[in-house]
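Forwarding these from the shared drive since the link keeps breaking.
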Amino acid sequence: MSKHYTLKKSVILARIGLGVFACHAAHAVGAPVSFREQIAPILLQQCQSCHGPTEQKGGYRLDTFDFLSRKDDTGDPPLVPGQPEKSDIYSLLVTAEADERMPKKAAPLPKETIDLVRRWIAEGAQFDGGDKTAALVEIIPPRVHDKAPEVYSLPLPVTALAFSPDGSELVASGFRELTVWKPDEGKLLRRIANVAPRTFEIAYTPDGGALAVASGSPGEFGEVRLYEPKTGAMLRQIISAADAVLDVKISADGRWLVTGGADHCLSIFDFATGERRHRLCVHSDAVTAVAISPDSTQVASVALDRAAKVFDIKSGKLVSIYRDHQSPLYGIAFTPDGKQVMTAGYDKSLHQWSIADAKKQRDLVLEGNVLRMQVLGDQIYFGGSGKKISQASIVDLKAGRVLSAVGDWVYALAIHAPTHRLAVGGYDGKITVWNMEDGKQVAQFSAAPGYTESVVATSSP
């Protein structure tokens, strides 16, 4: 999968950017330095990769304020409120010893940034982030993301798609944006800004009033935000994470929102209040997909660790574990009766198994790896490296219709049952739309605004 985007985590050492300085400038002149708004973003961008949850050089981590205040390997407190010169967190930024200076293997921080850290400590190193044990990424204010390019010079892989509840619009992932299309024509309707660089999943609320977007920058941060579909306004940020959030689902009754991400965890939120009810870090690698049962009582997850798990959505308790796959998993779905789960990934096999005893009921050998799957009625649709969408009966897992007019790996799949539309997004940046009644292609277009080959082909339904 050398040319394709990998979901495995990679550490990115980010330099201080304009966003941090903008945050500094926005803070009221003469006001005390805010840890949440001004210091935490610096630590997150400059320090956490070497002193975070996955690596603690020198035996020291600072991904929470609680850890930041603890003693290091030498037994000395790294932070002495009111005394910058006695605080390692400051002195290691200004030391003349190149081997000691932080951050390691990077240019010294700008003088304005160092002075800000010094002033915060001199003022007493006050914490204004609420929970001292919360991850820094969870307490900083929502980011204001850079604008998307006005015109795309190259197509970008389409990694997420979602039909509006009435089927009149199709929302697609973009670069730092979402694009909204008229699906049968490939006509760009509008663009939604202030989105993270990569979007991995999009989900409408049942009433169509909001879009939940799972996104991030792998190895750096992740988030789930709610947007108003028509205006593009950000309604609220549901979650901030230390790595990309790879999936988001909303229950059919609108009560629950579930996320899964590269931090190995899935989270269950009360949608109405935004309260996180459970954070389940029960996989040993990235959680690539989640699913909610038709009756909204259970949630299931798959991960790169090859395991599939089912949990009670209210209590968060583990219900079932399935371990018969031999390769990383990327797709999961409940059967319509909610009693079985279907999973697939890189072992070219679709498994259907019982939740009650975690035993395989049947399987289907595939031609390629599966990255996306979705259930509609008694049929399951799936696609991936085979460069096509395949259909199979859930009753007996017998292969059915194949939609093969896809130019590259399938990265996104959306279905709108009332209009009989199925949309696919791929690595080549194209979106293909089919009429599922007759299997005919309705439209195919590039999801890159302004790209010269924007409309590749269209035909009447």
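-- next protein --
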Amino acid sequence: MTKTSFPNNLDGLYKQERILREKAIAIFQSKPKLSLHLHVIERAMSLAMIVVDYPDGDEDFKVVKMLSIRMFNALAASLTLMSSGYHQNSCMVMRDIIETVFLMDLFKTDHTAIERWRFADKKTQREEFSPAAVRKALDERDGIYTKKRAEAYKMFSELASHPNMHSQHMLRPEESGDIVTGPFMEETTLEAGVSELGRIAIQAGEIMNTFLPEGWDLDDVRASFALIKNEWIETFYR
């Protein structure tokens, strides 16, 4: 075996991932409601692109662009992992999106926080901009005391991000079955994952949209996001 050869086991794993992706696509295509989540995700990613394209050289807005790129990449990665059978890893990336959404939400109403975040030392980062500190600031701003943001963050932490006994549920094709090694595709698991990612994409798109000035809408991306968002809300929440 030469150093430049591609290991057979990795090639076999890649082929299996492609098979599972085709299975996922077939499931999406057979259920229009699931496809609606995909359209929301795609429109949120397109919104990230027009944020990046907005001609603003301000250093604070460059932070908004950077975080929008982060969410574009995370939405794509989460969907790719999910469609390839890595459901636990997909949810782990979803937590990253939620954390970024919360941070941008803080910046939305306190633009001075962007500059503080840019130059924050470790102490300021911990006290003012850690995930827990950001959630606390948002809850206080909104007068919310139910800690729903903390509960959502905790759910993704326990199910996907932190190694613990709760994370085993993301490794089972069937709830009462055994955990498996490697990727798998199961319809109920896929539906739950893409539904959650669609909900998160709505939040991501909404928060990115607030940083764009009125009238700036390349290729009607903002308008189409608003339409698909309303259809999504009508379908799943009314």
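The chain has a mean pLDDT of 88. Residues 16-237 form one domain.

- D.
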